[in-house]
# Entry
Amino acid sequence: MTKYIGTTRAALVAFFALFCMYGTAQAAELKHATLALQWLPQAQFAGYYVAQAKGYYQDVGVDLTIRPGGPDIVASREMTEGRAQFATMFLSTGVELRAKGMPLAHLSQLVQHSALLLILKATSPVHDLKDLNGRPVGLWDNEFQLQPRALFHRLGITPRIVPQSGSLALFLLGGVEAASGMWYNEYHTLLASGLDPKDMRVFFYRDLGLDFPEDGLYTLDSTLKADPELCRAVVAASLRGWQYAFDHEEEALKIIMDRMHKDKVSTNLAHQRFMLRRMRDVMLGDGKTGNHTPPLGHLDQGDYDRVAAALLEQKMIQAKPAFTEFSRGGTR
Amino acid sequence: MEFTSEKSGAFLLLMVKGRMDTITAPEFEAECVKWLETGEIRLVADLSGLEYISSAGLRSILSTAKKCKAKGGDIAFCNLSGIVAEVFSVSGFSTLLPVLETREQALGRS
Amino acid sequence: MHLPRGLSFRLAASILSATAVVFVLITAVTYQMAREALLNGANDNLKNLTRATVNRIESVLAPVLRVPRGVAYEMEEGTLSEAGMWQRERRVLDDNAEIYGMAIAFEPFGRSKSQEYFAPYTYRSPLGPMQTNLGGPAYRYQYMDWYQIPRELGHPIWSEPYYDQGGGNALMATCSVPFYHMVEGKRQVAGVVTADVSLQWLKRLVDSVMVLNTGYAFLLTSTGTYVTHPAEGVPFNETIFSRAEEHNDANLRSIGQDMIRGGSRLVETTSLHTGKRGFLCYAPLPSTGWSLAVFAPRDELLAEVNRLSLVTGGLSAGGFLILAIIVISLSRTIISPLRRLAGAARAVAEGDLAAPLPEVRTHDEVRELADSFAHMQGSLATYIKDLTVATASRERMESELRIAHDIQMGILPKLFPPFPDCGEFDLHATLNPAREVGGDFYDFFRAGEDWFCFVIGDVSGKGVPAAFYMAVAKTLIKAVAESTKKDLAAGPDPGSIMTRASNDLAQDNESCMFVTIFCAMLNMRTGEVRSACAGHNPPLLLPAGTGPAQWLPVPRQPVAGAMEGVEYSTASFTMAPGDTLLLYTDGVTEAMNPAQELYGEERLSHFAESKRGFVNARAMVEELERDVTAFANGAEQSDDITILALRYLGANHDAGNCRA
# Structure
């Protein structure tokens, strides 16, 4: 009996050793990379989480780590400070940073339409946006300021800007006339707080001539120069992940919910489902907005020019970076 | 049959009404016997109310007549009409027994 | 054997189905009423529970506001120095066990132009009260809800509950009160005083609310977020609206909207958590704007009622069963003797008069029936016995009557032709009594060398008495005719025969019977007919040739045998050869058909005339008999039918040696 066990044991050990060697051999071929997302895990980044879970990055030889963003994290700084090779950010942010000297390279444009909203209560006396003049309006910081400022400038109004935190409580309690929100996020939060669509008056910046593309995939010039294959691979796998997420909604949601639970981010399935569906709308076009939707991943130069023009106008940048220097994805 | 009686002189007038057939015939004889026993031996039967008579009725009349005779009396008949008169005639009873036309005649005898 | 199942079954079935209906009705009605009462009571309980829980929560939360508000007033008074603030906060914590921490946060650069953030904060820690200064680039509290909202709204506010990582991951809420100062005559926000309150006790309280078996309570914030919920993973992840959205429950959404609007109601709904149908009672917490709801499952509420109904139903069913047994056995005891009586009745009907009757022990109608039946059985036996005797005697009488019939017919001359050697006449007669024996007769005999006597008669009445009289009368006439034969030189005299016969008959005539007779003597040589008629129907003379039939014009004289002393006369006429004399009794002319029409003399006359060309007397008699029968058409023969036909053929006609 003992002899038998001994033989089996030896066989197992040999097998295990072979397996490890094979595994490490495989692993040795994978490139490591880190992607810094601009916010906490949620369906807004479904494509990346799905690609990771489904092994699409591994399929292209990349062992990708995802670093979620948060209130105290700036995705671009993760790159510049070397903690990540790739990052996501708004197009306006990318252009602004590039204009201010950061060697950013735009790889792929994911969100083609702006999801930013100005939300009022239906009971508000403001029907015309001009009447927001002098009234308190909740605005987010940074990249979320471009469109509102452009709008107010165009309308010639000066509302009282009230910095908006992650909460909509002030708006719900009537502390501000209008609040900022993302179509795929805060709008649903309000629905899930008991407001019916008929209780809200929503203005889409994309309908106000400010349809600026948002989420895009970026890297640093250095990374692109050093390993263009890596960049191409990451983009391809990410796009593949997004396509899969749109085609397999429930599976994608499960992946996202699992990740959010693991990271202790509070959410619920209804919210994420709504978010994923709206992401599809802003990424692939919902057929409702009159604006043209470029193919997924492609940065339309016209969009680029409009965003740059708005930044210039608001004096957030001094000079407009060259398109060819900025957009380096070039994939169709 | 119905009988009404009336004393008239020496006679006991008996008004007979109904039918005299096999069933009712004995009633006539019984009625007459009743009067005979009270002493009325001279009977007159007014048959104007008699609708019908059969041979049993005739027998009863004959029997009654014999009984009257046995007591020393008699029985006369009057006011025969219709079938009764015919039967009396055919059977010859109108010859055998005193049969008068009218009551007055019957009661006027001696 | 249908009777027992029929009556017993029907009785049992009707009683039982009626009681079943009553029981079911009772059970159903009591169930309904009890259910309503219970539900009402339960709903009241639910409301009370909700209210009580709300009050308990409020009793802790409501007073909390007073503390930061007091400090805010002090701040406005401007009496507190920095050290004083720390002290004040410390004292608050000491005095209020439910307050976990207090902060006095100033507007950025509010306290000093060089310092952006000034917010002394004292809080409990496992090591005792700790103090720190809030605010920094990483903690820009002026944009946080607890500061920004009371500042913008200008009134105290309770924050949404949250989990405080710093405070051991405890459930907390912050009550913020703004305080003001005057700047250039205008009232402006100077800062916000906050009190952090631990809500662990609240969580425990709401989680511990027990309602029956699977009932529960939950707490919503003013935006509908679940603070507590029996389901894991729901608090702070889901709002009542996201849950409603996930399960497509529009009803839950509207309930949620009513709750966050401060509604207070009791509604019937289905729990997403347990899937059960039940009642949801909710009420707002006035101080914080949150909302408490308590759910009570309906089936558990109704468990009591269901039990009651089960008991009622069970009792009813049991009672029903007992009733069924009683009714069925009772109906059996009633029906069983009836059934046996029916069997006995059948046995009796089939001839077993001595069939034993069932014994009935009860003293009721069934017993009466059994007694009556026994009585009937006895009477029946007696009756049958009597009937048997009577039948026997009747049969004896009938057989005697048959014999009497034969005897009676025997005394009538039947040899036809009577004198085959005498060709002077053709004679035939028939007699058909109405009963076995009758009162009609005919007779014919030689009465001398040239004379032939033929008689027909009809005794008053029918049956045996008439038969006796008939026999006497017939015999008497012949005897008288025989005895006077030699006396009269001029020939026979039917009249005197009749006189003597009548007198003889009238003597000793107790029964007062009488007889009609037609007696005639035919001179065979000359055709002369001498006759006497005692009340009898006049014969019909049918002449040879074409002349009409005529009724003999005989004098109608009284019936014979009624009274003594009646004299009869003799009539005389002559028959020509070929003439036929038809004698009959009134059985012929008074034969009635079902329409109560009489055969009548006219019909007889017509019949005779129609038979003019007949073959012989026999044919005529038989045809007449047939004709009368045909006329009667089934009506009962009420009187004896006697017919005698005599056809004179003439002296020359085959004289033969009939003068023997």
Observations:
- The domain at 116-208 of chain A is CATH 3.40.190.10 (D-Maltodextrin-Binding Protein; domain 2).
- The longest helix of chain A spans residues 2-29.
- Chain A has a mean pLDDT of 89.
- Chains A and B do not touch (no CB pair under 8 Å).
